[in-house]
Each structure stands twice: as C-alpha cells, then as structure tokens.
Amino acid sequence: MSKHHRGHDDGHGHHHHANQFTDMEARVKALETVLTEKGLIDPAAIDAIVETYETKIGPRNGARVVAKTWSDPDFADWLKRDATAAIASLGFTGRQGEHMRAVFNTPDTHNLIVCTLCSCYPWAVLGLPPVWYKAPPYRSRAVIDPRGVLAEFGLELPGAKKIRVWDSTAELRYLVVPERPEGTAGLDEEALAALVTRDSMIGTGLALSPEAAR
Question: Where does the Nitrile hydratase alpha/Thiocyanate hydrolase gamma domain lie (predicted)?
C-alpha cells in the first residue's frame, strides 16, 4: 500500500480539522435548532434532502463520467491525461472540483480516496460528502489500515490485490474509476451510469452488477 500525500490549507497557511464544528457549521446548527423549536422546519425532511444530494443527485455527475470512460476509449485516455479538462467537457466543474485527477482500478490495484487533514471532496462530481468521509476515524484509519476499513464497508479484497490510498487536498481532488462489471458489453452509457455508486467512486465500494442494479 502506498500513500500519495500533499499538505493542504485554506490558502492562508491554516489547516482545517473536522474534529469540531467550524464557525459556519455552528451557526447553521444553531439556526436549525431555532427553526425546529419554532416548528418552521422538520429535521427529518432536511435529513432526507441531504441524503438525496449525497447519494442520488450529486453522484450522478461522476457516474456519467465513469460511464463515458468505460464506453469511450478516447475519453478514457483524456481522463487519464487531464481529468480536469475531460470532466469539464461534460459540464461538471466549479468550486471544490477545479483540479481533478482520475485513478483507475485494475485487476491488480484498488484505489481509495481520503482527506487526512480535513474533508476535501470533489463536490462538482460527487455532490455532498458523506458524513463518514469527514469523520476522524475514517480519515486516520483509511491510511493506516485501508484493507480493514474496506472490510467494514463490506468490501473484502483478495490479499494479492494492492490498495493505493490517495490523499485529497485543497489543490487536488480525486475520482476513482471502478472496474467495469462483467456482462455489460451491450449497455449504453445511461445504463452503465446506473451501475456506478458514490462509494465506488471513492473506493469504498465496487460498481454494481447489472443484476444488482435491477
């Protein structure tokens, strides 16, 4: 297992750690509490909206990138050489995704993404980061014991398969291109995109088989 790491900060030389609320998060939490107490919002409804953006709307962008990569060799080559430009060509760009690198899973190597110092995440491609991605236990253990972390996600990899951990930074974020599932030769890009999960693009899961996606 190798680890790619770059120091990262907020542009002013300060590191951000997610062990406690930032000022903005604290303000949002306080506002949510007040509005809930006044009966103006339903916390369950907010949780449902956040879940939708975390697992459905946001990751669809990345799923389209992966599906095109699987079906278009020229695009796959472009993504390897210049992921930022290739992804932007599909209309997915903006803050938190200005500089991207795509890492490809192979039969020999599995890639896993983490941000050890804070929670840098490619919002433009994957939507909102899941809560566990920002949690200190994942951020520390993904580097120390990636195989054990993957097992906790239900992903048991062969002992001979290497696991490479990539550390996202404020300057560079990553997208995992999972291996294309077997039995998908006749599927178009829309059908292929339906097989790509958020976790498979972080590296904590695999793409779905056509049977599992039904």
Answer: 23-204
119 given a catalytic annotation: yes
Q: Return the bridge partners of 88, or none.
A: none
Annotated catalytic residue within 2, 89, 115, 209? 115
Global pTM reads 0.75
The catalytically annotated residue of 2, 71, 89, 118 is 118
209 catalytic per annotation: no
> Which domains are seen in the chain, by residue range?
60-202 (3.90.330.10)
Task: Kindly report, residue by residue over 192-205, the tens digit of the pLDDT.
Answer: 999 999 999 999 99
Of 89, 119, 140, 200, catalytic: 119
Looking at the DSSP assignment, which residues form a beta bridge with residue 164? 111
